[in-house]
Backbone:
């Protein structure tokens, strides 16, 4: 056989990689919105876009002590690989924390994850076959849609506040592809709406899950940040009361320290039945072995000494910011714009007059008013929400929030106040 030393180079299409990606990558594309939001770093722009914690709340001094202690007293452990379940003292703290929240948990019910975002990915990986259905709110957390979409599901819409659709209607919708596999919900101060599921809606959701025999994935990212009103029982606490034990519960709870301590340590957890945790540990092993041990040690140090104080400080600060935004909306926005009044968390959700586009408003807001936010459509699995926007008050100072809302409202000048 003749050996061709210099074979002609194949002519690839404009992009070598594009035709080679796996099918699951089709849904993972950078959006135009993200490109536009890169402009928010320009000086003078007031951003309601990010939804990221206020860095003034970070426990920098205590974190420095925690890392120094880990390195001087326990470097051999701190810098080593570790078990996939997590660092035992942190697991114990989390199990006690869950117990305080009404879910009697033992260490075997907990898996430490790299933020709750990793929990979303792991649960999607464990449960979703291509074309299975994930039932989600519309709108819902964009990062959950991104995590699940890698597993090529279909989506259907939850509506527990309206009493749900019939279980049969969900089964019929799913039958065209696969099975209905999970319901996902952010029950407290949701991203993106800031709204909280009332007790009745929580019960409706659990009843639907029971009728469909599917797990509920409860994302509690903002639960600790309640400014006012009575705390509601978590879906997991309600379900444990129904089932008799956590091991018999069908709710999977995702917790995180990102909004209460600091997101940079990348630490969250999954609390669920022991059987499910054992399967998820295998996924953790295959994915990244373990969460950084030194970060888990530092987190243990921080939560053991400061958890309640950190939560208290976050609540006080974000409450002032929420009030600044609500007050400014009331003072400046035209009557045809409506918005939510969250009792906690980091977000207000505004609905613009019918026919107005959140995406077009963002273009104008950035270029004409120096204000950024996230158009609501990104949070809808079904392409809805064209006339909605998400406003986060977490990062700007109160006076910037007032100025930002004033500038934003100037874009509505044609509308009656
Ligand atoms: N769930 C929700 C509802 C969120 O808003 C976020 C982040 N903003 C996450 C999960 C992921 O957060 P983390 O991975 O930092 O815990």
Residues:
């Amino acid at each position: 056989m003749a050996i061709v030393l210099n074979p002609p180079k194949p002519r690839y299409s404009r992009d070598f990689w594009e035709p080679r990606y796996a099918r699951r990558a089709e849904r993972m594309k950078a959006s135009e919105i993200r490109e536009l939001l890169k402009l928010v770093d320009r000086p003078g722009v007031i951003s309601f876009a990010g939804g990221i914690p206020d860095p003034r709340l970070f426990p920098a001094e205590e974190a420095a002590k925690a890392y120094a202690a880990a390195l001087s007293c326990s470097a051999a452990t701190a810098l080593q690989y570790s078990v996939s379940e997590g660092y035992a003292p942190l697991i114990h703290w989390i199990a006690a924390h869950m117990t305080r929240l009404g879910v009697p948990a033992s260490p075997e019910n907990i898996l430490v994850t790299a933020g709750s975002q990793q929990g979303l990915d792991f649960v999607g990986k464990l449960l979703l076959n291509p074309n299975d259905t994930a039932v989600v709110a519309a709108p819902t957390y964009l990062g959950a849609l991104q995590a699940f979409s890698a597993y090529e599901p279909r989506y259907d819409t939850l509506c527990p506040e309206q009493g749900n659709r019939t279980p049969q209607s969900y089964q019929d919708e799913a039958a065209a592809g696969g099975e209905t596999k999970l319901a996902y919900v952010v029950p407290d101060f949701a991203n993106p709406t800031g709204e909280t599921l009332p007790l009745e809606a929580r019960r409706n959701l659990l009843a639907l899950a029971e009728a469909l025999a599917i797990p509920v994935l409860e994302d509690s990212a903002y639960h600790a940040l309640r400014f006012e009103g009575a705390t509601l029982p978590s879906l997991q606490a309600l379900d444990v009361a129904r089932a008799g034990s956590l091991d018999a519960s069908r709710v999977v709870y995702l917790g995180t320290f990102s909004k209460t301590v600091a997101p940079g340590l990348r630490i969250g957890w999954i609390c669920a039945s022991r059987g499910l945790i054992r399967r998820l540990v295998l996924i953790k092993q295959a994915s990244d072995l373990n969460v950084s041990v030194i970060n888990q040690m530092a987190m243990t140090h921080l939560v053991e000494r400061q958890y309640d104080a950190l939560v208290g400080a976050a609540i006080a600060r974000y409450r002032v910011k929420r009030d600044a935004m609500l007050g400014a909306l009331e003072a400046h926005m035209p009557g045809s714009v409506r918005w939510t009044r969250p009792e906690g968390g980091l977000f207000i959700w505004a609905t613009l007059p019918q026919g107005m586009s959140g995406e077009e408003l963002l273009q104008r807001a950035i270029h004409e008013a120096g204000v950024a936010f996230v158009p609501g459509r990104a949070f809808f699995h079904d392409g809805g929400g064209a006339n909605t926007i998400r406003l986060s008050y977490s990062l700007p100072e109160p006076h910037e929030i007032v100025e930002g809302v004033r500038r934003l409202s100037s874009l509505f000048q044609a509308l009656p106040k």
User: Anything to note?
Assistant: The chain has a mean pLDDT of 94. The first strand starts at residue 46 and ends at 47. Residues 51, 115-117, 141, 143, 186, 191, 219, 221, 256, 258, 263, 268 surround 4'-deoxy-4'-aminopyridoxal-5'-phosphate (CB under 6 Å). The chain has twelve helices and 13 strands.
